[in-house]
Amino acid sequence: MASRTWLAPAGLVALALVPSIAGALRLTQLATGAEATPERFADLPLPVVLHILTAVPYCVAGAFQFSRDLRRRNPRWHRAAGRVLVLCGLLAAASGLWMTLGSDLPAADNAATNAYRIVFGTGMIAAIVLGFAAVRRRDFRAHEAWMIRAYAIGMGAGTQVLTHVPWQVTLGTPSPFARSFLMLTGWVVNLAVAEWLIRRRPAPHARHPRPRRALTEASANTQQSPA
Which residue has the higher pLDDT, 226 or 4? Predict the structure, then answer.
């Protein structure tokens, strides 16, 4: 049973592996001056570096927040890691928006792809802020829900590998329209899974008030008792 608590973190780390490796190669290209492929963002090295250095730890370290056993045994680690992840998530989303808005549209993309990046990047920032605000007021259930949604958006690149590879293998390089659809599918799938996880959580424990019927009977008995 204990090993099952690590299935989700292990799966999420595996999902983040390919974009993490791609990010490391991109940093190597920038550091060595090698020709970048694709050519997009070549004129914006700062947000590219910032995005990779924050998105990779956000996705990899964030996976371990899904281990309920780890959170229960190490609450201090959960809180400390959570603070770092909030910062990383905000910087990753903000730098992604910076790259999207600050660079020219390449031939492989279309306006819809850029619009999706803006919508989901903004949504990720909003979810992190709402999750942080919830934990500040000690609404842990809302905090968990918003952080799951933010992480789902942040892991879009991992799922987009899964949506692109089958298309690439069977049909070749996707057109800009197909690419925008595959990008959107990755985010939608992640958010659908996130909402499923949120809704299947056990209901919070609540104090059970004394049944109204018992209160009514007690009141009636008091009124009928002889003086």
Answer: 4
Question: Concatenated DSSP letters for 80-106?
Answer: HHHHHHHHHHHHHHHHHHHHHHHSPPP
DSSP one-letter string for 145-197? HHHHHHHHHHTHHHHHHHHHHHHHHHH-SPPHHHHHHHHHHHHHHHHHHHHHH
pLDDT at 211: 46
Per-residue model confidence (pLDDT) at position 44: 74
Nearest to 161 by CA among 9, 21, 8: 21
Under 8 Å between Cβ of 100 and 136:
no
Q: What tokens appear for 79 in the block?
A: 């809180």
Q: What is the mean pLDDT of residues 3-20?
A: 87
Res. 226: pLDDT tops 50: no
pTM, rounded to two decimals:
0.84
Structure-token pair, residue 162: 């899964």
Joined together, the tokens standing for residue 96 give: 């992604």
The amino acid that residue 25 corresponds to is L
Q: Is 30 exposed, middle or buried (0-12, 13-18, 19+ CB in 10 A)?
A: middle
Helical axes 111-136 vs 176-199, angle rounded to 10°? 20
Burial level of 108, CB count in 10 A (0-12/13-18/19+)? middle
Q: Would you say residue 227 has pLDDT above 70?
A: no
Predicted local distance difference test score (pLDDT) of residue 120: 98
**Structural domains counted in the chain:** 1
Domain hosting residue 85, numbered range = 2-224
Q: Give the DSSP H or E segment for 125.
A: helix 111-136
Q: Which two tokens stand for residue 16?
A: 């983040």
